[in-house]
Amino acid sequence: MIEDYCKLIGLRIHYAKQGKGTPLLILAGWGTTIPVYQSLMDDLSGAHTVYCLEMPGCGSSEEPKRGLTSDDYAQLVKEFITKQGIKELSLLGHSNGGRTVIKLLTSGKIDFKVDKVILTGCAGLVQTKSTSAEFKTKIFKAGKKVFGKLSPKLEEKIKQHVGSDDYRAATPVMRETLVNLVNEDLREELPKIKQPCLLIWGENDEQTPLADGKLMAELIPDAGLVVLPNSSHFAFLENRERFKTIIKTFLES
After folding, report:
1. 241-246-248-250 Cα dihedral, nearest 10 degrees
2. Sheet-wide strand order for 48-53
3. CA–CA dist 137, 135 (Å, integer)
4. What are 139-148's pLDDT values in tens digits?
């Protein structure tokens, strides 16, 4: 495996390259690093030149100076593909990487051909807030009403208490990025995807529930959904052999 860096949207981005054959680009999920996808790279590099990007603020990739949007992530991927001289490839997006794939394919003209698309535990649909989440939001807003403008220290404490694990673990600029991403609903973009699309979901995925996968399968014109039992948001790790077989069959068909 070769590891290197590439300047993309003004940031120093870490990536890995492995294998020989038709190009396949893996877009990592929020907060994940290249080693998480090493088994995927190993399984697919026999027939493909597999690339994996570490997104801004993750692993060894540079953190942005401002909050990024899904358009920024799509532009980053466009620049990477162009700089690598890739004219034709397939895409595999996990979680937020899947969101980026959707945005990339539906946000305008691209100078390369995308053959096939694999989305696993794909993000991109805005969830209806649970009663618990709504209650926490009300607490936060009520606190502001009672105390007026909160001190930065107190506001941070409240955010830490009511926020998600990803939010709590993030730096301020990455929190801004996360808010930008999770508040954008891409369901209206899904019918615009023209490539054959394989959706692979863990039946016990709590980060991006199976209902999201089923809806995406309905809205993407040429899509099929495979549900892996006893698997969560990282089905490609928990059900590696079956995941590998399904992907290889799809890519080689």
Report:
1. -170
2. 2-8, 11-18, 48-53, 22-27, 88-94, 113-120, 197-202, 223-228
3. 5
4. 344 444 444 5
Please report the pLDDT score of residue 253 as a whole number. 84
Sign of the dihedral through C-alpha 182, 55, 74, 242: negative
Burial class of 151 by CB neighbour count within 10 A (0 to 12, 13 to 18, 19+): exposed
Instruction: Give the DSSP per-residue string, 72-109.
Output: HHHHHHHHHHHHTT-SEEEEEEETHHHHHHHHHHHSS-
DSSP 129-167: PPHHHHHHHHHHHHHHHHHSSPPHHHHHHHHHHHS-HHH
Inter-CA distances, 231 with 2, 131, 155, 239, Å = 30, 26, 36, 7
Measured in degrees and rounded to the nearest 5, phi and psi for residue 199 equal -105, 125
DSSP 3-state assignment of 250? helix
> What tokens appear for 76 in the block?
């980053």
**160/134 Cα distance (integer angstroms):** 16
Nearest of 31, 27, 19 to residue 120 by alpha carbon: 27
Q: Which of 165-179, 186-200, 234-248 has the lowest mean pLDDT?
A: 165-179
User: pLDDT at residue 112 above 80?
Assistant: yes
Report yes or no: 9 and 76 within 8 Å, Cβ to Cβ. Answer: yes
Whether the per-residue pLDDT at 67 is higher than 90: the answer is yes
Tokens of 185: 């609903």
